[in-house]
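Hey, quick one: can you model this chain's 3D structure?
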Amino acid sequence: MAGPLAVAGDVVVDALPYFDQGYDAPGVREAAAALVEEETRRYRPTKNYLSYLPTPDYSAFETEIMRNEFERLAARQPMELLSMKRYELPAPSSGQKNDITAWQESVNNSMAQLEHQAVRIENLELMSQHGSNAWKVYNEKQIQDLNWLRKNDQLAAGCKLREMESNWVALVSKNYEIERAIVQLEGEIKKMKQQQGDENKENIRQDF
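Sure thing. Here's the predicted structure for all 208 residues.
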């Protein structure tokens, strides 16, 4: 597997998941599980591992509407039905058929309802462009771009590591060849010295 990718604080991230190979090799999963098991033995949780924290205040973020709703649920009261009165378009009553003011009020109410519906359409269009779904799509795009960037960086780093590893192997092999040649030369030198010593001894014998 590849070497360290980045340093986050004091933690060295020693992984290139887009480049590393061998995760499915025999024994790798077992070795990882053994490491996890060994760490959980050192950090075994207590019966209540949150006992050192203060008691949470569950009502800290409650609004008045939420409190009223919780009280209604606790009292098992039915939910108040949505009033549709404001959306009705009543015509003047039979006694006001000839009352211009009553008709004017009805027309004004109709125009208000029409404007209200136009505003709702605008809000829906804005929501489709800038609402939660659009934000999710934007986030997915950002996540995809980030993953592609990480993949490209890791593949580039992996190729560099592979090149460096290949160079290291070549240097080790070259050093081994050099050491072997040195040992061979030392053996030949030793042999030559031994032969020269034997020749000197033979010459000394002949002189006597």
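One thing worth noting: Confidence is low (pLDDT under 50) at residues 1-8.
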